[in-house]
Design goal:
Layout lengths: L3 E6 L3 H16 L3 E2 L8 E6 L4 H15 L7 E6 H5 L1 H7 L5 E2 L5 H7 L19 E2 L32 E5 L1 E2 L10 H5 L3 E3 L1 H13 L4 E5 L7 E2 L2 E2 H9 L6 E4 L9 H9 L6 E3 L7 H6 L6 H14 L4 E8 L6 H14 L3 E6 L17 H24 L5 E10 L2 E6 L10 E4 L10 E9 L4 E8 L6
Parallel strand pairs: 1-2, 1-3, 3-4, 4-5, 7-10, 10-13, 14-15, 15-16, 19-21
Antiparallel strand pairs: 6-9, 8-9, 11-12, 17-18, 17-20, 18-19, 20-21
Helix pairs in contact: 1-5, 8-9, 12-13
The structure holds iron/sulfur cluster.
Length: 464
Amino acid sequence: MKNSFYLLSLGCPKNLVDSEKLTRRLCLSGLRPTREAEEADTLIVNTCGFIEAARKESIDEILGLAKLKGGKRRLLVFGCLSERYKEELQAALPEVDAMWGVNAEEEIARYMGTSADDASADDASADNTSADNTSADNTSADNTSADNTSADNTSAEARPSTFPYAYLKISEGCRRRCSFCSIPLIRGPLRNYSPETILKEAEDYIRSGTKELILVSQDTASYKVKGFTFSELLKDICSIPGDFWVRVHYLHPSGVDDSILEAMAGEPKVARYLDMPLQHSEQRILRLMSRGGGRRDFTKIINRARKMMPGLAVRTTFIVGFPGESEEEFEGVLDFIEETGFEHAGAFVYSKEEGTGAARLPGQLPKAVKKRRWERFMRAQAAISLEKNKSLIGRGMTALVDETDGKFAIGRLASQAPDVDGVVFIEDEKGALKPGDFARVLVTEAQDYDLRGLSLSLKPAAQG
Ligand code: SF4
């Protein structure tokens, strides 16, 4: 137990990247992570402050872990929630021994008695100063805090490194000011990591056996460093030798131009997966959200992307119950998801966030109305998703195996992102599959979100 720590990571994949960064930093200094809180002498919570439900979950988890305190066990807290509400939390949670905001890995390591010299000097990802302070000069943004996609999916456990995928953060902060979103207030303005830093990290992951790199940020399409764009970054990552997939998360629709779609379509390693948070379909609401666009613009992008990348899965998120959203405007969203047939779509119930423009808008809707709309959305999307899944029955597809247990394995098609989409449960009669294998799977059964299938053979990373 001595010199061990238990890290609970809450919230989105960007938070998970920070948790992994801290874990690596502490491990390099000789500390040991544990799977069970009871086995550790330091308990750490990486908090999420995105919406009310996430804040409540963070506080509940902190209080839960506080019950395990006693003896010399310490409880530390960092992340988005404590970035924004540090003083209030310190006053309300005396059980917590120390608290930091975001980008605090080095300070936490110091507090835990490790010096920077203990850590490998080439651990570039632990170097927050490597984020280039160049903000992209135009285009888009993406609601990555809304990255969690389904409203009931606000947490992710600290991930054991046995999974064959890794999240790679390409920037911090956001240059957008969507009226409902507190992320720019918490994480600050956009700062892109340098291409060299990202490529080195990507190479390290591939060299150590990672089979899927998932590019995340608050605003992926806005990535630009001294004229070097996201499309160029994507091509460079794909040129790393090896058999692996690259998945792109959080493309703000206003940034999805031909250069991005062509870069994705032209690289066989890029998962045929377009993650484009739309938040609404109706122009009036999108204007109030300070996002712009509308159903016609979105349909155009999706049709073009589907044409360029056959078999493409489109993922998005919506906010239901935004201030002033009429019943008719909500029905517009339902029409739109029906008409578009999103492979994956999640919904958030609008949450009034302190300090945001939308919090001051008239027409805040009662909780019951928002909840009813969310439930209708989720029912409608489950039916769409089931139909999409049924269309795969009888087809042979490539899956990346995440976990195995004797004659069963859990994998994902290129159309299924970890943590937010479904999985494929694979019957593997010979017990031959291992995590990290690309397996050929015959899809035999479809559920609302998951699939079942039979293992056919191992094959290289080609999709479809
Ligand atoms: S793009 Fe909008 S929703 Fe996404 S993080 Fe930036 S401000 Fe928030």
